[in-house]
Amino acid sequence: MMKLHLTTGTITYMQGLKKEHRDVKIGAMGQDAVLYYESDSADSIFSSRNSYDVQYTSGTLDENNPTSMHFIPVPDERKGPLHGHLADVNEILLGTRGVQSHRIGEALGEDAYIVLIQWAQTSTYNDFKQTNSYKNYLSTEALAKYRTAESLFHKSISSKLYLPLKDNEENPEDEF
What superkingdom does the record give (predicted)? Predict the structure, then answer.
């Protein structure tokens, strides 16, 4: 099974790591950045990382596309229902305008999942966030039903959009 490996940090630090590992992809939003790549191995080149068993895949990952990452922590007893939900998410993404590629995977050694989606452009992602598909399948509210009282005190459901470096540099958030 293919594995997706990612790590996050400051853009400066991640750009340095990217120079050491040219085959990894990079995305950034302001000063936050992510490096990611796929391999057949559960071992990652990143010392601080999250790794996932990819269960659904479509298209080829390309660091020149905006990338949304949806992190979904879920306790063991809710994994079964979530699997069906993620199968539906996969079907929806296959038919969503502007989706260039996607990966859906389960974290190795952790009770969490990821939905990584690469978009034709940022506006396509913003448009998707206004659809019923997003509201019913990837919004925090839609995913909250897979949580338990105990899991609410652990990692929260989150999503983040990362831009290609060239687009991130064109729209610096921290200009004074």
Answer: Bacteria
Sign of CA dihedral 57, 67, 133, 72: positive
- Cβ–Cβ under 8 Å, residues 36 and 6: yes
What's residue 47's pLDDT? 85
Centre a 10 Å sphere on the Cβ of residue 54 and count the other Cβ atoms it contains: 17
3-170 classified as CATH 3.30.70.100: yes
pLDDT tens, position by position, 80-90? 889 999 999 99
Closest CA to 35 of 52, 60, 13: 13
User: What is the pairing mode between strands 99-107 and 67-73?
Assistant: unpaired
The CA distance from 102 to 161, in Å, is 14
Share the mean pLDDT of the chain: 89
CB 5 within 8 A of CB 46: yes
